[in-house]
Amino acid sequence: MLYASLLLKALAIPLLARIAWLDFTTQKISNQNVLLLLCLGLGSLQLLSVQSGSWWDMGLSALAGLLLFVALFPFWALRKVGAGDVKLMAAVPFLIGGSGLLVFSMLLLVFALATALIVKNPFMLPAGAFRLYVQHLDRKGVVPFGVPISLAAICTIAFQIYVALMSQPGPAI
């Protein structure tokens, strides 16, 4: 069941990359993509909960998702973040599980700070990326928060897969 859970998490990586790209280029995070992420996360958590016999991780993920939604909702109401960003942040805890929340939080902080640094100093980017970035900011005038969320989730999932595979016993000789 562990490998099935890891497979569901691995399937979320290309979807998160797609969400990041679409958020960067169109400033839209579709409900369909967030719902698919939520389903992948719930399936993965379900498999792990059945295997371990404990629903603690599922409950912690639900609590974290609810808290993130409630905490970010006022920012959406004030038009500081988009609705897709709020829904994505609420869905990510289900995808990474309660045990990955600390790693995700640290990575999100790093990627959000890097995004803020790039927004303030776009000259740090290579010429092609700089041109694309400046054109994007001229068109929209906003920062796509879905990009650092997706990058942090991808790195967290990759870390979880790595740890799970390295902690499995090797073949008997």
Could you please describe the fold and organization of this structure?
This protein is mainly α. 80% of the residues lie in helices and 0% in strands. The protein has seven helices and no strands. It has helices at 2-26, 31-52, 56-77, 83-96, 101-120, 127-140, 146-166. The longest helix is centred in the N-terminal third of the chain and has 25 residues, at 2-26. The model has no long low-confidence stretch (mean pLDDT 88).
Q: Find the structural class using helix and strand composition.
A: mainly alpha
**What is Rg?**
17 Å
Number of contiguous helices: 7
Amount of helix:
over 70%
Question: Major sheet, described briefly?
Answer: none
N to C succession of SSEs: HHHHHHH
Low-confidence stretches: none
Mean pLDDT: 88
Give the tally of β-strands.
Answer: 0
The span between the termini is: 24 Å
Global morphology: globular
User: How big a fraction of the residues is strand?
Assistant: under 5%
List keywords for this structure.
0% strand; globular; 173 residues
At a glance:
With 173 residues, this protein is an all-alpha fold. The protein is built from 7 helices and no strands.
Secondary-structure blueprint of this entry?
Layout: H1 2-26, H2 31-52, H3 56-77, H4 83-96, H5 101-120, H6 127-140, H7 146-166
